[in-house]
Amino acid sequence: MATEARMLELPFIRDDQLTRCMRLRFQSLQQKNIRPQDGEKLLCPNEHIYRVDFIRQRNLRFLHWNIQLETPGKVTVTGTSQHWTPDLTHLMNRQLLEPVGIFWKKPEAKEVECNEADAQEFGERIAELAQIRKVMYFLLAFTDGLEPAQLKGSIVFKA
Fold first, then answer.
1. CA dihedral defined by 155, 15, 89, 78, rounded to 10 degrees?
2. CB–CB of 51/135 below 8 Å?
3. Which of 39, 58, 93, 154 could form a disulfide with 66 if both were Cys (CB 3.0 to 4.6 A apart)?
4. What distance in Å separates the CA atoms of residue 137 and residue 18, rounded to the nearest whole number?
5. pLDDT for residue 2
């Protein structure tokens, strides 16, 4: 029981307002026939913005991802650097973190799979950023028939 009290599970929260704002940026550029800024990341139709609220957590140690997919498909989770402030600046490709977390579920499978080495490294990087961030934004790309409503995800840390 004592170990459970030290675990902290932080959910991915879908940010529909920010996703909508970024889609409007794309539409606006198209309507005005204007090119995006050099290096600007525009959302593709299968991409959505999520966030994780850290609430000033200190000394977190990444334990594991908790990704559940209701149906077969794949989700790619890309973090954004601390230099992106969505209310002030456009998202630039250089602000996307590597490695990314890629999670998939095959037809007939019960468990979600991932590239464990990249997922571990990505989780550790998030734990480092949590020390200086109140909130972190993520770009989630859904492919192979997967939709946002079919995802339930969180990151588990040792506090």
1. 40
2. yes
3. 154
4. 10
5. 46
pLDDT of residue 56 exceeding 80, the answer is no
- pLDDT value of residue 54: 87
Q: Name the pLDDT band for 147 (thresholds 50, 70, 90).
A: very high
Q: For residue 78, give the amino acid letter.
A: T
Helix (H) or strand (E) run with residue 121 in it: helix 116-130
Q: Which of 131, 151, 4 is nearest to 63 (CA)?
A: 4
DSSP 63-92: EEEEEEESSSEEEEEEEB-TT--TTTS--B
Query: Can you say how many angstroms the Cα of residue 29 is from the centroid of all Cα atoms in its chain?
Result: 25
- In this prediction, residue 59 carries a pLDDT of 84
Order of strands, sheet of 151-158, starting from the edge strand that comes earlier in the sequence: 7-11, 151-158, 61-69
